[in-house]
Amino acid sequence: QADGSYIVKEFWDEIDSGRVQGYGLSLQRIAKEVRHAALGPCTRIDFKASSYAILTSLALAINPQLKVESIKHYVKHRSSVRKRIAKEVGVSEDRIKTVFTAIGFGAKVSDNPYNSINELLGKEAYAKLVANAEFVEIREAFKAVCKTILANELFKGDCFSVGAHTYNTISPKTQTKRTKNQKLAWLYQACERMALDMVIEKMPSAFVMQLPVHDCMYLQQPLPAHVVLDLKTELRTVFELLDFEQEKIVPIHAREDHSMFTADWDSAETEHRLRTQEAERAAVGYQSSVAVTGNTGFTATDYTGETNAQYEQRRRRTLMMEDLLHAHKREAQEDE
């Protein structure tokens, strides 16, 4: 353009599950480094292990007694789990991440020299992977999840809907009958679209989405902490295990230009730190509403006269504290 900037046209196609896919030269399809350079400093909202979280949430809604503790642990601590397995198998964490993603979309882990996972890892690393106890436990739990969903009356047939999207046993793209794994992939994609729509609809109008990329989206600026908490609470009412993290994105740049991209973030962090210090000073000498009763412990506050607004405020405060506590425990476990 006249001002020296460039425009790259994006081409999109929405498949029947509701997933919006870019094609040709699309920011959705290229390497993250190039995508981030094109978008500039921004914020990414990224769903954590979304295929496992969404499908396992559906399976638990069908059968709350399903044994899926290994998947719950993977969803919460996916990075440390992948690092641990990658170290034992002797491959990069990215390779193990690709394996988990493939299984989440229905790839089989069988003793087949032409299997995609076998080809990805090589014979020796593949043998170590299928012998890894932690990986096997997650894989078996996910098999049970898939079996539970496919056996349910709602999804057993070839006609059901998720939100505004209706499943068709014949793929519009290939005009062939979908397999069971393809049905699960369609179901996951339709639920993922539903989750993304929930975030988009609930976030304040002042916040602008720059780009959707399946299980994440890019925003021009970070969402406030209370909005993030409300969105997470909203999502968990539908998908019990689904969570997301908000991440600052700073594209590739020269070291001397770093402050130019991070000034706003640094300022916000400084202001937050000052507010915290002020709150701590104001709390000096504060008398708790929980009264100590000698060696017998504490007497809980009486909430019988609490209004709905006061209850809602207390509930959100409790959720925020629990969220912070879980985050702290997770960081401590990953450090170990």
Explain this structure.
It is built from 13 helices and 10 strands. The chain has 336 residues and is α+β, with helices and mostly antiparallel strands. 19% of the residues are buried. Helix 2 crosses helix 10 and helix 4 (78-89) packs across helix 5. The N and C termini lie far apart (52 Å). It has a 4-stranded antiparallel beta sheet, with no helix packed on it. It has a two-stranded antiparallel ribbon with strand order 1-2. The chain has a two-stranded antiparallel sheet with strand order 4-5. Strand 6 (209-213) and strand 7 form a beta hairpin.
Helix-strand makeup class: alpha+beta
Order of helices and strands: EEHEHHHHHHHHEEHEEHEHEEH
The strand count comes to 10
Seen as an oligomer or otherwise, the chain set is single chain
* Rg over CA atoms: 23 Å
Largest sheet: 4 strands, antiparallel
Distance between the termini: 52 Å
Task: Provide a short characterization of the protein structure.
With 336 residues, this protein is α+β, with helices and mostly antiparallel strands.
